[in-house]
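Sequence, please.
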């Protein structure tokens, strides 16, 4: 939204547009026949009534009679200034400055600076020159202000210049300076004129002070209820203040008061109502922020159906597609938008984001360089660049989990849970900065442990590897050496993933001496190799389905095979609350009945649950949210029948910056193994640093 309002701002202290009057307009012949004195009196009267064109006509007629008429010359200059021809008025002043009092001279120069500021906010000839006129306007304003002595006589002019400067600073991207002046004025109990309200609100939003932006924009609308751009900005200020109900209420009133099409008497066809257009596009974006992405998509596609050649609509639809997880469709729309408007920042930002989502880093690189060269001060461009830097840099993750297990019969099933009475797993992974837009070197350290009948089994690994990510393909290779007394075999693994489309992906992995094989088996000196296949189907952000196959080949000849399927479906989406149902089916079998570890000959499990996710606090990239998941599981094991048991998990997620996240949770369940019910309490921790 940065700089969106600068081009349309009108000066609050400029005279209003003249209304129609009953008095007939003077003809050129009538003016020519009037005595000079009478004509001057009539001209000043007309000027006072806001009839500046007629005032200008009289002054021109008088100057045609006598080019040296100073009063007529002065009147013409003031009429031109009143009409908005501030530069021409300033030129006339410079030609004969002796005709004007100091106060009038200051006003003419201030009018010229104000007009320069308005022009500086209009669409530029090219992105390379987009700020040149505003920089010149700001320089002229600064020079004028420096010449004004701090006296009561110049106080009004200096205040006007200070207010005009807010518009210039907003366009130049100096949002903190605008925010500081707003704070200073309000702290002193003052107010700012309505004509700068849009610029101030925009800068407060850009400086990420949405609550102050709400105050400024509400005050602007109270003073000028027809300030359309301030109304649009207020919707965003409500959203960024997490006041979605207020945002929707304001949007509803905007759409209800504006018809999509307007007409004039006698016109052959209707014409677009751009105020309604702004409201409709804003609703799409607000819906996308509020997790109502299906609604946002329907509205955006309807708008594109009407205005297919509108770059902003194509870009808006592309952004919704990206949020729904459709990278290729999103990139296509952003590319169309960039074709329609090659110099605009938003389509380029969107295309870079889409290419990063699609892991097409090599294609994103030149586009990002062009974007930053053309729009170095654009906030969205800078944020896209920040994301690029995070993706290019170091990536670090830590995952830890701890569990405690007790059963009703400590002597059953070998005297302990298959997971041990206590278990823990720690994995630290480090990935190097991206090399040649595709490669990273990796290192990892892990330790898994479990207590079985007083004996602690530990499996430590220290390894390194390489990953390759480009477009549809992700691939990795790693090797690790053990650091425990239960096994001296090196772990070697490879994995790959292929994205078939925006919604379908598949992956496979193979590990020699699988690090996730049973610790019970490792206690007996038995390791295993594992092969896994998985397919993911994600039609949108609300639905996901997964299916997988797994086989573990233990050294004792046992073949442990399993098939699984799971789903996750959004039931309710609100700005701060999400409700999902989830579940899964798992079936497994083992080829040996005498393995010295938990190895059901056949078993199945069916799970169905609900998960509530609430955003408790959010401030742009930072947030705190918590989740509660409750499910029921039916587990059936051959030879022991079936049993239901509950699972409950509660977790917190903190994000203190983009790419910086901390999550932790506790869980409780009552699983059944070999017919013996257990109580399991777990705690887990995850820290992520990177993209």
């Amino acid at each position: 939204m940065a700089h969106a309002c600068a081009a349309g701002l009108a000066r609050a202290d400029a005279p209003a547009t003249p209304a129609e009057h009953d008095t007939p307009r003077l003809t050129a012949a009538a003016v020519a026949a009037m005595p000079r004195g009478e004509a001057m009196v009539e001209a000043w009267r007309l000027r006072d009534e806001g009839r500046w064109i007629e005032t200008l006509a009289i002054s021109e007629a008088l100057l045609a009679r006598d080019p040296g008429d100073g009063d007529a010359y002065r009147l013409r200059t003031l009429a031109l200034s009143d009409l908005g021809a501030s530069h021409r008025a300033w030129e006339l002043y410079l030609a004969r400055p002796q005709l004007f009092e100091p106060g009038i001279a200051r006003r003419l120069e201030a009018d010229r600076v104000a007009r320069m500021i308005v022009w500086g906010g209009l669409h530029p000839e090219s992105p390379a020159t987009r700020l040149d006129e505003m920089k010149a306007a700001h320089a002229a304003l600064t020079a004028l202000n420096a010449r004004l002595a701090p006296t009561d006589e110049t106080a009004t002019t200096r205040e006007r210049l200070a207010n005009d400067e807010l518009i210039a600073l907003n366009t130049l991207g100096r949002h903190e300076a605008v925010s500081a002046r707003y704070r200073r004025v309000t702290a002193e109990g003052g107010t700012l004129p309505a004509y700068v309200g849009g610029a101030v609100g925009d800068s407060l939003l850009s400086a990420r002070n949405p609550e102050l932006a709400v105050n400024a924009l509400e005050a602007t609308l109270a003073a000028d209820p027809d300030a359309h751009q301030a109304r649009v900005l207020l919707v965003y200020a409500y959203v960024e203040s997490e006041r979605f109900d207020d945002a929707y209420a304001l949007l509803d009133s905007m759409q209800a008061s504006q018809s999509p099409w307007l007409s004039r008497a006698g016109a052959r066809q209707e014409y677009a109502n751009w105020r309604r257009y702004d409201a409709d596009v804003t609703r799409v974006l607000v819906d996308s922020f509020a997790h109502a992405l299906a609604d946002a998509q329907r509205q955006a596609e309807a708008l594109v159906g009407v205005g297919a050649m509108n770059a902003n609509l194509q870009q808006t639809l592309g952004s919704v597609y990206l949020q729904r997880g459709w990278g290729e469709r999103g990139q296509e729309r952003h590319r169309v938008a960039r074709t329609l408007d090659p110099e605009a920042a938003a389509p380029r930002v969107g295309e870079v984001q889409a290419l990063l989502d699609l892991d097409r880093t090599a294609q994103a690189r030149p586009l990002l360089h062009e974007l930053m060269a053309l729009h170095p001060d654009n906030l969205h461009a800078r944020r896209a660049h920040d994301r690029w830097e995070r993706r290019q840099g170091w990536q670090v993750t830590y995952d830890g989990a701890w569990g405690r297990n007790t059963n009703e019969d400590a002597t059953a099933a070998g005297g302990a849970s298959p997971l041990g009475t206590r278990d823990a797993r720690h994995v630290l992974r480090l990935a190097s900065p991206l090399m040649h837009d595709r490669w990273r070197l990796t290192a990892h350290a892990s330790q898994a442990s479990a207590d079985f009948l007083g004996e602690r089994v530990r499996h430590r690994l220290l390894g390194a590897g390489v990953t390759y990510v480009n477009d549809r393909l992700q691939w990795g290779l790693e090797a690790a050496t053990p650091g425990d007394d239960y096994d001296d075999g090196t772990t070697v693994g490879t994995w790959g993933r292929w994205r078939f489309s925006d919604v379908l992906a598949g992956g496979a992995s193979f590990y020699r001496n699988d690090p996730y094989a049973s610790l019970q088996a490792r206690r007996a000196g038995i390791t295993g190799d594992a092969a896994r296949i998985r397919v993911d189907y994600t039609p949108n952000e609300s639905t996901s389905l997964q299916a997988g196959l797994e086989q573990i080949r233990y050294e004792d000849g046992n073949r442990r095979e399993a098939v699984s399927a799971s789903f996750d479906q959004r039931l309710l989406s609100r700005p701060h609350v999400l409700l999902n149902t989830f579940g899964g089916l798992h079936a497994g079998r083992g080829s040996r009945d005498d393995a010295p570890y938990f190895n059901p000959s056949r078993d199945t499990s069916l799970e169905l649950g609900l998960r509530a996710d609430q955003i408790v606090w959010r401030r742009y990239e930072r947030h705190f949210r918590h989740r509660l998941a409750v499910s029921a599981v039916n587990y059936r094991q051959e030879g022991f029948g079936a049993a239901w048991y509950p699972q409950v998990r509660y977790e917190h997620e903190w994000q203190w910056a983009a790419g910086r996240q901390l999550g932790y949770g506790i869980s409780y369940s009552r699983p059944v193994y070999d017919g013996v019910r257990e109580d399991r309490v777990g705690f887990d921790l995850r820290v992520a640093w990177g993209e």
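The mean pLDDT is 90.
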